[in-house]
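Handout, section B. The chain below has 213 residues.
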Amino acid sequence: MPDRQLSSSQRKTGFVSLPESFFTQVMPEIQDLAELKVVLYVACLILQKPDSGAQRCEPSVTYKHLKVEACRLSPELSEETLRRALDSAVKHGILLQSTLNIDGLLEDAYSLTGDSLQPPAINIFALYEQNIGIITPMIAEELKEAEKIYPAQWIEEAFKEAAALNKRSWRYIARILERWASEGKDSGEYKRHTKTYGPDKYVKGKYGHLVKR
């Protein structure tokens, strides 16, 4: 019987990305193959959901859906083994178990804990080296101080803004952060935190001479 030609859509393969933390923090906790398979299935199903990373609620997968997928991908994975693997993953803090009301029926659902798929933290030192250059001991202290004051997302975006304007200096980036803290950034959602991230802590502090108005 001749091989059937696959259409271009059938040949397409989807991809999901797992951060380094999954391999360095999650996998060392898993000693059982069934548990590893189940955790990977949960991660795959969640990450394949449209805009799962942007959802305000924690994305999850129901036990019913997971059972169908696990049976399809691993026929040897019995329901008893699936339940045991899920319980083990919950015990290890890799998965969170909850109950959802779906069309009037209560269903078990599983989601990944906050740390399971957390991408690596933004490295301010790497940003500096990539965008500005060699880090001196004095600059290293200033970068550490900035990490304590400003949200990581602000720091990354400030570096991007400075690079786009070809203003590759820490003084310029610090001024951007100071302005955002003082005036509010974007929608102003962080403006209420000005006391915590306020410019005075940075301008009047140990390194204030670098960001004087």
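Note. Residues 1-12, 51-57, 187-199, 201-213 have pLDDT under 50 and may be disordered. Compare this with the example in section A.
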